[in-house]
């Protein structure tokens, strides 16, 4: 009851502020309308993605946009902190940077390949271990909800997160940012943007972050989760001709963190012990990403080329028994090299009755891993390794027919064909002979169609209905114990969505509403191996996910705005029977909720600017935010859960021209909740969410 009261109180407060604000005299509001812009108006949602049309607002897709101002206002530091800021988006923060599952509308994965795609400046991030990136010098983040397989292809069943860094043709000057907070949190960032005659633009930035950790290990008497992270980025943009533009973007990240502050959960009583194990657990990651984009633009069409390369290696050390005893320790190493090339051509004729685009995509990904499990009681090492090179190819097309049958009615149809082949060379598994590898290969192909109708109404309204196919690739279980478990196949879905969005009262109010239903088949589910030790992926289930999403923005005046984002997801198994080979027991989970999927996500925020206009101070900016998620279940049995929880965040900024000081705090009420749960054969574990944090930022532009 307390959680419901919190939500009702926040909603009532926002409504009260909105009503008070409407009492402002009409002549005070007049003249401000030019600056009171909806976040999704055509001028505000112009994007840089070479695949999407320039204005998402007029497309039949559910989308959320975080601008650079909102990223700063909400004090977002890493990708995990955008959770719930888009309806039905959930990114649990636990473990380390290696553990970065993303869920949208109930679709996600925390053990194998991702179900939600991540692109940064057009570069695809294929592996979940690369997802947790620091957010610095970001121009915007857009979240596309629902299957995006027709344009983006594999592993986008849940949606896409597009991150765009700042362009030197849009930003100029030098920025210095310093942060200090409790728990020995420090961060510094420096960036510079410039261009020569608006023809050659250049940008360089660097960011360093240190956190002393939030959770104490009672055995070592040290914090269990400190981190040091360094990131750099360089960009060169060149207008070779008015029609020809090139971008070269290079990024590097290094992180060294202790992590996995897991605690024993006593299931019967609900009591949770302190972090209590004797050997440091850690994750170190090196990651280099490069993208080269060429665009040739004419009055009738645009041709784009995107060349991408990403390398990362990561090393994990894990006290697998999570006790003060020397029982098990695991060393895990992973390395990836990914090359991709995409060509895209699309029409640009404004007002045309027919719009089109074609694309070709190819990639090569080489993934290597080795796993060394050390039984400390007898000194026996079990070493398993696998090398998985994968090659893929895709061709896609999308057409839009405007003014179909009646004026303004549009029909959209798209189709994509994906093919890929993956190989494996394994050592040390139960399927291999001593000293000899197991070699195998498999291939998959998939058609992902999409169809939609849309109808604009009023000044800026849009209604649409869409049907689309989602696709997630298959692969190998690198630690399989039986031949029949070696390969798992792709999973796929059909998604049905109806939605509408519009502004009202001269952009005083903006509403975006969508309803969806997803039918999910051949579902990849993590199951216990025959030995009872570890997990493999099997195509074992069918599920359905349905829900509703609402976004609202209220702009009472130039200085005051409110935002609301709400998502409801009902994601359940339709057909799932789990056979445990270790016990010989079959358990039926039909009609159970899918694990790690919050039924509700809530985001409420308010922003008010006081105009001081004094020699020593221009503005004071107040930001208040409420983020909520839950209820969610941790297991297929639905026997362990996390109730709905909400976090209050706030920030006040003092601004004088190009200098500002921010005072911020997160989880002001010190809400206690579990951000993760897992179990072994004999024990249950959880990780607590981050406690109350606060700090100060200093920002200088020159």
TrEMBL record:
InterPro entries from the UniProt entry: Beta-barrel_TonB, Beta-barrel_TonB_sf, Plug_dom, TonB-dep_rcpt-like
Protein name: TonB-dependent receptor
GO biological process: iron ion transport
PANTHER family reported for this sequence: FERRICHROME IRON RECEPTOR-RELATED (PTHR32552), TONB-DEPENDENT OUTER MEMBRANE RECEPTOR (PTHR32552:SF81)
Matches recorded under Pfam families: Plug, TonB_dep_Rec_b-barrel
Limits of the TonB-dependent receptor plug domain: 60-160
Membrane topology: Multi-pass membrane protein
Record family assignment: Belongs to the TonB-dependent receptor family.
Gene3D superfamilies hit by this protein: TonB-dependent receptor, beta-barrel domain
Domain of life, source organism: Bacteria
GO cellular component terms attached to this protein's record: cell outer membrane
CDD domains registered for this protein in UniProt: ligand_gated_channel
Keywords: Cell outer membrane, Ion transport, Iron, Iron transport, Membrane, Signal, TonB box, Transmembrane, Transmembrane beta strand, Transport
Signal peptide: 1-26
Location, primary (coarse class): membrane
Protein species of origin: uncultured Dysgonomonas sp
Subcellular location: Cell outer membrane
Domain TonB-dependent receptor-like beta-barrel: 254-667
């Amino acid at each position: 009851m307390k959680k419901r009261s919190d939500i009702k109180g926040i909603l009532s407060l926002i409504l009260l502020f909105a009503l008070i604000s409407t009492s402002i005299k009409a002549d005070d509001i007049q003249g401000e309308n030019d600056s009171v812009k909806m976040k999704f108006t055509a001028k505000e949602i112009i994007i840089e993605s070479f695949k999407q049309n320039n204005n998402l607002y007029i497309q039949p897709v559910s989308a959320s946009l975080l601008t650079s101002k909102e990223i700063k206002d909400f004090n977002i530091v890493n990708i995990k902190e955008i959770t719930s800021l888009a309806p039905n988006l959930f990114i649990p923060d636990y473990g380390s940077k290696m553990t970065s599952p993303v869920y949208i509308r109930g679709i996600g994965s925390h053990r194998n390949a991702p179900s939600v795609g991540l692109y940064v400046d057009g570069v695809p991030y294929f592996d979940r271990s690369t997802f947790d990136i620091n957010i610095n010098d970001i121009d915007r983040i857009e979240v596309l909800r629902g299957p995006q397989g027709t344009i983006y292809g594999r592993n986008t069943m849940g949606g896409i997160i597009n991150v765009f860094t700042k362009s030197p043709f849009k930003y100029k000057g030098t920025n210095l940012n310093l942060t200090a907070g409790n728990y020995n949190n420090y961060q510094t960032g420096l960036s510079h943007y410039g261009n020569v005659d608006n023809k050659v633009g250049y940008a360089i930035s660097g960011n360093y972050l240190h956190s002393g950790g939030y959770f104490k290990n009672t055995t070592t008497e040290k914090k269990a989760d400190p981190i040091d992270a360094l990131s750099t980025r360089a960009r060169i943009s060149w207008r070779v001709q008015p029609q020809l533009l090139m971008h070269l973007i290079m990024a590097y990240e290094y992180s060294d963190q202790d992590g996995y502050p897991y605690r024993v959960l006593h299931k019967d009583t609900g009591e949770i012990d302190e972090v209590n194990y004797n050997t440091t657990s850690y994750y170190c990651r090196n990651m280099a990403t490069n993208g080269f984009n060429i665009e040739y633009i004419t009055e009738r069409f645009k041709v784009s080329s995107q060349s991408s390369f990403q390398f990362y290696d990561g090393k994990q050390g894990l006290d697998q028994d999570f006790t003060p005893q020397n029982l098990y320790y695991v060393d895990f190493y992973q390395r990836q090299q990914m090359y991709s090339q995409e060509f895209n051509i699309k029409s640009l004729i404004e007002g045309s009755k027919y719009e089109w685009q074609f694309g070709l995509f190819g990639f090569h990904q080489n993934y290597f891993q080795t796993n060394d499990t050390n039984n400390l009681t007898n000194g026996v090492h079990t070493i398993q390794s696998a090398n998985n090179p994968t090659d893929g190819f895709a061709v896609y097309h999308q057409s839009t027919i405007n003014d179909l049958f009646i004026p303004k009615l549009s029909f959209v149809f798209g189709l994509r064909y994906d093919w890929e082949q993956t190989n494996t060379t394994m050592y040390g598994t139960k399927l291999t002979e001593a000293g000899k590898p197991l070699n195998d290969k498999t291939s998959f192909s998939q058609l992902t169609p999409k169809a939609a109708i849309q109808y604009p109404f009023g000044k800026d309204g849009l209604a649409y209905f869409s049907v689309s196919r989602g696709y997630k690739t298959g692969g190998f279980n690198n630690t399989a114990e039986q031949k029949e478990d070696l390969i798992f196949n792709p999973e796929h879905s059909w998604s049905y969505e109806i939605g509408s969005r519009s502004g009202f009262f001269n952009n005083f109010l903006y509403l975006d509403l969508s309803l969806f239903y997803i039918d999910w088949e051949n579902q990849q589910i993590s199951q216990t191996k025959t030995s009872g030790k570890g997990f493999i992926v099997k195509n074992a289930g069918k599920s359905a996910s349905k829900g509703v999403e609402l976004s609202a923005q209220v702009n009472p005046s130039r200085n005051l705005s409110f935002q609301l984002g709400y998502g409801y997801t009902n994601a359940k198994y339709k057909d799932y029977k789990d056979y445990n080979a270790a016990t010989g027991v079959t358990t039926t989970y039909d009609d159970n909720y899918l694990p790690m999927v919050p039924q509700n996500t809530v985001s409420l925020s308010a922003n008010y600017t006081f105009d001081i206009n004094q020699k020593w101070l221009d503005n004071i900016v107040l930001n208040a935010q409420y983020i909520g998620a839950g209820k969610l279940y941790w297991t297929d049995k639905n026997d362990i859960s996390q109730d709905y929880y909400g976090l209050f965040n706030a920030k006040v900024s003092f601004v004088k021209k190009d200098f500002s000081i921010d005072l911020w705090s997160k989880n002001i009420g010190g809400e206690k909740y579990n951000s993760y749960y897992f179990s072994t054969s004999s024990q249950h574990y959880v990780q607590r969410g981050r406690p109350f944090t606060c700090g100060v930022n200093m920002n200088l532009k020159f």
